[in-house]
Amino acid sequence: MKLLLNLGWKDFKRNKAITTALAVFLILSAIFMAGGLRVTGTMISSLNGLNELAVPTDYLQMHKGTYDEDDFKNFVATHDYIKDSLIVKMLDIRNANISYQGETFEKYLMDNGFVVQNEGFDFLLNMNNEVAIVQAGQIGVPVYYAEELGIQAGDVITLHEGDYSKKLTVSTIIRDSAMNAALTSSKRFLISQADLDELSLHMGEWEYLFEFQLKDGTSTTVLEKDYMDAGMPSNGVGLSGSFLTMLNAFSYGLVAFIITAISFLLIMIAILCLSYIIRATMAEEHYTIGEMKAIGFPGKAIKKLYQVKYIMLVLVAGVIGYLIAIPFGDFLSSSVIMYCGEGTTEWMKWVFPMIGIILLSLIVMFRCRRTIVKNLKSTVVELMRGEEKMKNEGHYSLPSAGLKHRNLTIAFGELKCKWKEYSVIFFIFVFSSFLILVPMNMKNTIDHPSFMTYMGVGQSDIRIDIQYNEKLTEQKEAALSYLKNDSEIEKYAVYRNGYVQIQNADGEWEYIRVQNGDESVFPLEYLKGSAPEDNKGIALSYLNAKELGKEVGDSLTVIYQGEELRFIVSGIYQDITYGGKTAKAAIDFKEDDIEVYYIYLNVKEGVTVQTKSDELRSVLTDIKITPISEFVSQTLGGIKDNMSLVEGAAIVISLLLIMLISVMFLQLITAREHSAIAIKKAIGFSNRDIRIQFGIRILTIQFVAIIVGTILANSLGEVIFGWMLSAMGASHITMLVEPLTAYLVYPATQLLVVFITVILGTRVVKGFSIRDQIME
């Protein structure tokens, strides 16, 4: 064994550039594999810990308006599958009435409610994941605002309405198992009972959260149907605990998924490089291998001799990768730890990466062994004669008219006859280009206002929310009256949301959210079919259609106000809101059944969206006004920030890979073509000519690879992104590309990196001569 290790070490020193490049590939693969799994382990641990300590609700129904508490108690008492229940009294305060450091929260789209600590379950936790307690004059601020505004303990939040003002000192930052993620549009502030009573006398509007914990095995669909059938208070959104957990997991899990996907790409690159290096090395040493076989050297010993180097390499790479993955994974996990805490099963973030490293090592060792065994099958005579090497040599003919562009002709000729040798570097260049573009295109897509279309509505400039309250109709009419007389508004449309019953695939009747409005004003792109054109058509969201097993043209029966209504499915669209289960139909909802009005509008050319939003806020003071760009930015802000980190890492890693693979490939190819280079120099080709030929070969491969990588990023990248969002309700995402960056800046950067590497890597040809070749 000592002899094998010594031979392996000597081989390392003899091929430093190649060994270093391969080591970097393996280390990067290990870092991303272990890092992605560390983020995954941290996320699972954190979410489990938050849910274990906060004891989240299984079902939550929001409600504005009056209700009968005795009816609620009777409902709970008559349904034995309900384990526990809770009524949370929440004071909703307009964002314009909340100030921090002299600025209001008006630019934030979140609905802000003020509550006291719950009893029984659904606890609000502090940053130590303990049940938070605040005293009179203190306030617990949601972690979302702490991160967005940099709010810390000791800061002051001011609540004001007219002449009344109340200052509350931040005593803790709040983690909320139900409303943590930016994807949830409501946030809860924790205050004392005395402060809540005082504030309710001067400002705000009461909203109630009816929460339930169910016995094991009970579906929330059963509860929801019984709850609605009983006519219980439901003027607001109803959400299951599993959906809230999915929102949290999606917010933090997207990065872990992308990092792990990158690691698999890197592993593929490392295996391709490894296979090529082994084949190239054994092809060069065919005579030595033949000699060893001829003198009776056992096949197993030869296999070990070549394998020990790569085993040592992968073990070292695994250890280094695991150690570096700890700070790397922790950095990318900072968001989930901030929002959810360290968790109660921290072993996951140590064990998951270890499993990944072991898996990586086994994959590489298996591939290494397979390649070596395959290349040792030649007989002693074949190896001694070099027949295996000759089989792989190709030939090309020079043009009879002479060499008008000699370097170009020679370079393309060699590419033609040796294309198999260049297939490895081609695929790696493709992967590198793919690796740069996919995260960048994902971020651009999420960042663009048109991403709003994946939330079930057409693209517009401004969104107006009028949520259920006692003045719902009055507020809607006031908004429409103002918009009708505003000459700076190009167009607008009003949409209303209500509930109907629908029979699911299990034959159970459940409630779904239906939107009614003019779909032609802000048209939505449909996966199949089109928007309803009359009162007989209904459009279903992707998840609804999938679960109901419905296609365009199928009939569908819904129940509203006890009456059966028959529709024909006119289209299927994508929607990631409300758990991805919505529909669109011309149902004439009664005013009391309308949960919310949405008004979408476009401003005329030359009118600033932000200026018009500020104007509308000053006039429609009781209504939430949000520019669509802000809506998307705030809803997906945390995801976009994490995607920016991944995008930056992917660009750096890809450029580093391009440089390393170019160095490694040039080292191998110049060694293999030693004699050919010497002959070229003997017949009159200069060192400059030979270096140009190498440059043409590699840059041509790089150029073609960039084109292929770009096509794959735009096609396969869309499929991957759609698959990632399919659980949320969007199965087909159209990737939005920034042409200047994607098609010019980054391709030029990649070509420049390769160009510089070729210049540096081909210097070695100066030392090649025909005299040395003849002597060998």
Please describe what this structure looks like.
- The protein is α+β, with helices and mostly antiparallel strands and 776 residues long.
- The protein folds into four domains: 1-56 and 237-392, no CATH class; 82-214, no CATH class; 408-453 and 636-776, no CATH class; 472-621, no CATH class.
- Helix content is 53%, strand content 18%.
- It has 24 helices and 22 strands.
- The chain has a six-stranded mixed sheet with strand order 10-5-2-11-1-12. Strands 3, 4, 6, 7, 8 and 9 form a six-stranded mixed sheet that branches. A six-stranded mixed β-barrel has the order 14-15-20-17-19-18.
- The chain is elongated.
Count of strand segments: 22
What structural class results from the helix and strand content? alpha+beta
Binned, the helix content reads 40-55%
Side-by-side strand order of the widest sheet: 10-5-2-11-1-12
So what's the overall shape? elongated
